[in-house]
Amino acid sequence: MRFSLRSIGLLAFIIAPLAQAQVLSEWVENRTGNDFNNIPLGYPVPIPVDTPLPFDGFRSYAGLHLRHQDLAASTPWVHPETVGATHAGRTIWAYRLGDDDRLTLEGLPEPAMLTNGGIHAREWQTPEIVTGILELIATHASDQHLYDYLRDNVNTIVIPVLNIDGFLQTQRTPTLNYLGIDPNDPLGSPRDGRMRRKNMRGADENLYTTVDLLAGVDLNRNNDPFWAINPARSSPNPASLVYHGSAPRSESETRALDEAAALGPAGRLRIYTDVHSFSQTHFWVRNGNSRLARQTEEVLKTFSNHQAAFPAHKNYTFAGRFSVPLNNGIGTTDEYFTNIYQVPSWTLETEPRNGGTDYGGLGINGHDGFILPDAEIRRVREQMAQSFAAVYYRQAGPPALVSVRVIDDATGALVFEAGWDAADDQDRTLFSQQLQALVTDRSYDLWLAFNKPMRWRENGVVTSFPGQPDSTLDVSLGLLVGAQSLTVEKGQVDWLPTPGGAPSGYMNYRDDAFRITLKLPGDAQNTGLIGDSTETTLTLRTADMTGLQTDAMPATVADWKNGAWVRYEDSSGLGSDTGGIDSSISLEVSTQVQAPPFLLEPGMTAAWFDPDHDGEGFLLEMLAGNAAVMYWYTYDDTGQQDWYVSRGDVRGNRVEFTALYRVSGGEFGPGFDPEKIRRQVVGSASFVWSGCDSGSMNYRIGAQHGRMRLKRLTALMGLDCGQPSLPPELPQGRLSGSWYDPSHDGEGYNVEVLNNGQAVVYWFSYDPAGRRRWFFGLGEIRGTTLVFDDMLTSRGAIFGPDFDPASVELAPWGRLELDLDCNVGTATYASTEPGFGSGVLNVKRVTRIDTLDCE
To answer: What is the pTM of this model?
Structure first.
């Protein structure tokens, strides 16, 4: 084999220290006799175990990797990605944690967080901690709070082990390493084996091949912009423990970090952390961006205070921004991310502290500060993961007020609503409607909802988030006419832990909304400012769980750019990092007596549609007991038919459908199997009516949000709205409602017998291939039978704001007869569409319209 002069020179750097007395030393619990080749810990030496499951000890790389891949296969929250290969050709894995669409619940691009582990091979805690993050987000039970929020709204990227080659080398000989070979500290610094720090460039995997014991590159000295500028801590000597490599980012492992950031994508990144182990501290660097420095300090404070709040009370220290030298570094990854990506970035040094003496260790060799006892790793892993979740939540973005509803206390009717709807990734548009002015001396429920869960609970009671002051619980709320405050009698702020929407349930997550009663007394202050009627401004200031204040102007979507928050306004409307008082909502108040609010009644049972969405619509059934059923006939994003169904609660002049179901698994015809039917909650919808013939609705399906204005399409026999209803003129008028064949549970019919003696039917079903379909027709009553000679089907429209009525194509489907009595009957069909055929179903009633009795 021929060597170049450069190769010989590098080899000499490595071989020269080995001329000293190299000693194969062993970590032991306690040293016996005078065998100073053994290094006692004072507690059992951790040995990796080949298991994927977390336990009170350390897992092997194979066990950890199996755990990652198993969670990717068994949960919807873990998405494996390859981001590079090690020097030895091993795949470097990153994992995206969260849902798959990378969109928030508002339909905006998700922020990204990146956490790296295992850059230094000997620091076994770090793969466990990063795996703990993965396990926490992947396996935490659905809580409709912090963890569901993170899964729905944050793209968390983790690299459990970056330096895989080195990590495997430490685990092959978990007790052995060499003393007497380090060029700077031969007697005090164990090298290679269990104490290998660097990657395996230039080294083989045989511990007993001694010529390469000092080879490798310190991956945490291999980075711009401070590569090779601090010889004391970043060495040009290949034998050094902190050898910085031949060039910045010369190593495939360090380059893999950029590939992981690209999974964000890079422009969405808001945090980077490199997890290490030795003591309890955060290291970070300061560049010329003072706003980034302040935000980094705030993130570190959130993390450290959260750690200190655990029963173990671990104190993670960090230097304040005025104590961190400007533009000074040694080539670490956090320096690279601070300067290149402009996000809060830090090196997190985790336990042990004090050489393990905190756990009864002896602290004989400084390097025992890298070896955590088996008995401590579960606590460190689990609690660190929770603190990471806290900072991910903070950096997900400032809280914004996105929905306001005012409910008349006496009737339960909604009199005012407003909502900020995301128009794109920078702007929101305001929807607002006032159905009735707020009047003095009348009691109301004010309901306000935010874009993230806002409060923490312990034993069911709202309390400050771990590590946060009680001041984060403050809520300031008022009403202004011009610059003058109205007198407002307010109740206690009631954060809402149960679903249901306004006024007594949260919007999307536990405690993302609160309810407060208010009254405007008819005193001299208020009557003087209001006169007969005037517009008033709602003012609100509060903070999320980690102390981020409300965005003062929700019209612009707060984001992160160039090391600071953008479109995050303060009370003056200026961009800031602090937020302020939201004054974005205005509503009318009056001193004049108002007519009673409109309330829903059985006559609202009808078909409804938005004229701008002609071709899709809603079938509403008003049931007894303040309940309602709604069918939504619509399309998917490819122009094919789709439909949803929900049961809701009637509240005054509105209906809240908190669980909107997509039903799937059916097959049209004799092959229908109800055991294959699946009902999936995909969203929610809220309807409010201003009168018998008009109203509005808003919905959320996945990341899709929208609003529609509603017009009546049908009026049912025997159900007049706004006046006393007369009995149906025909006995078939009592057949309106829902029907199904029990052997076909998962499809069915909505029947409306109209006040002109005609009938409408919608059949919600499937095609022979299992795609959701609906068929509809206008028919007539012939004897005792409802006959629909010309059933239709449709296609062509696109769901959502791009719906175009002109694209709807109608096509004939066939014929349907419903021969019904009050409770049972038959449905006889004959389709002209290929594949559907003909048949007879035995149907029974599912719903009875309120007051429309049939006996």
So the answer is: 0.94
